């Protein structure tokens, strides 16, 4: 009897804390979702990229993992997963693409992108919660959520990192950053398609929570 | 992903005073190097930092210059492009200041990860999180999450290879949707299994320790019999009972 009543009581109680980052405490499944998604970002970053399109130009999938963490797990757990991934990389585990890990990357030209990742997951996750309240147009809306998250966080901070660490003037930094834009658009589209499949396979992952709000 | 275990962590056993230096000292040293290089960013400061890190690596960890150069290999493409760009844009001195500074920071960080076993670094980070306990941080759960993450990487890497092989067998390996979607779904399923395994062992669930003033003890999917007893969260307890 008690568990049943507890379930019915849940929606009422979870309402005030659902919007906060650390309001609801995580159980073991939340914790392992965070840890496994941190591992997923690492796996996508260190594995050789997938040849894409007719030319077969390989792209690395690190940012795909970051976006997926945000829109699959939601803002709080997604940000935590990205932060965990960053911590693991900064203490020297070889989980960053290119640079092999260690906090030396913070001095490298790509530091701005790394710093932006948790913010990107946060923004994408917040937008995804809104998108997943509705059933229709999920792929295009999630794509827009990812795209705006990366345009608001990853690219500005990446450009700032290029200016500070690599000593590039603003126009050059923007030009270097712009090279990543087409791949980014493709990865965001991919993230949206995958996330919709994942939410279909595990409806309670995030959509169940969003509906309860 | 065979062989990942050997690349996991960058520790290489050896001799020298760096191996005997306590971790906090090494961490402070390499952070100081990064701070100095970034704050001044002049060729002379960079030169000193570069010489210093090279000397420490050669004397403190008995590494030959060739092996030190090999440490920079993964970063080499980016560094070369950046160097060419800086020379063309701002001249030799500025290029040395920027690229040399990055190399000095990379080597300083590498000196730490080279001479400290991964487990020691993990312990150090968890200890570092200790003071944040007052803010509601839980270093033990942080450590647990880190170790679950490290265990999951080889599994996911293997799953990635399997999924790609399966896609290739169907001639779909150019379609990233087919290559990645099963990986992510597999990852979520794996996380659920791991979570259940952790819960079965009583790990990972929040313990009602300190700092529960801002938390109302909400249990997300009920049904797991983890009804918090005692008076922790009074409103919570009364609702369950009535």
Describe the 3D structure:
The complex is a heterodimer of chains A (213) and B (242). Chain A has 213 residues and is mainly α. Chain A has a single domain (27-212), classed as Arp2/3 complex 21 kDa subunit ARPC3. Helix content of chain A is 69%, strand content 3%. Chain A has helices at residues 2-17, 28-46, 62-73, 75-90, 111-131, 138-165, 170-178, 181-201, 207-212, and strands spanning 50-52, 57-59. A two-stranded antiparallel ribbon of chain A has the order 1-2. In chain A, β1 (50-52) and β2 (57-59) form a beta hairpin. In chain A, 58% of the residues are buried. Mean pLDDT of chain A is 79; it is low at 1-23. Chain B is an all-alpha fold and 242 residues long. Chain B folds into 2 domains: 12-116, no CATH class; 118-206, no CATH class. Helix content of chain B is 69%, strand content 0%. Chain B has 11 helices and no strands. Chain B has helices spanning 4-7, 17-20, 23-40, 43-60, 65-71, 76-90, 92-115, 118-129, 139-169, 176-200, 234-241. At the A-B interface, α1, α2, β1, α3 and α4 of A face α3, α6, α7, α8 and α9 of B.
Provide key terms for this protein.
heterodimer; A: 213 residues; mainly alpha; Arp2/3 complex 21 kDa subunit ARPC3; two-stranded antiparallel sheet; 9 helices; B: 242 residues; globular; disordered C terminus; Biotin transporter (chain A); membrane (chain A); transmembrane helix (chain A); BioY (chain A)
For the CA atoms, what is the radius of gyration of chain A?
A: 18 Å
Number of domains of chain B: 2
Oligomeric state of shown chains: heterodimer
Secondary-structure-based class of chain A equals: mainly alpha
Topology, number of strands of chain B: 0
Task: Measure the end-to-end span of chain A.
Answer: 24 Å
- Give the count of helical stretches of chain A: 9
Structural class of chain B: mainly alpha
- Strand content of chain A is under 5%
Task: Find the biggest chain interface.
Answer: A-B, 83 and 96 residues
Transmembrane segments (chain A): 31-50, 56-76, 83-107, 113-132, 139-165
Protein name (chain A): Biotin transporter
Family (chain A): Belongs to the BioY family.
Organism (chain A): Arthrobacter pityocampae
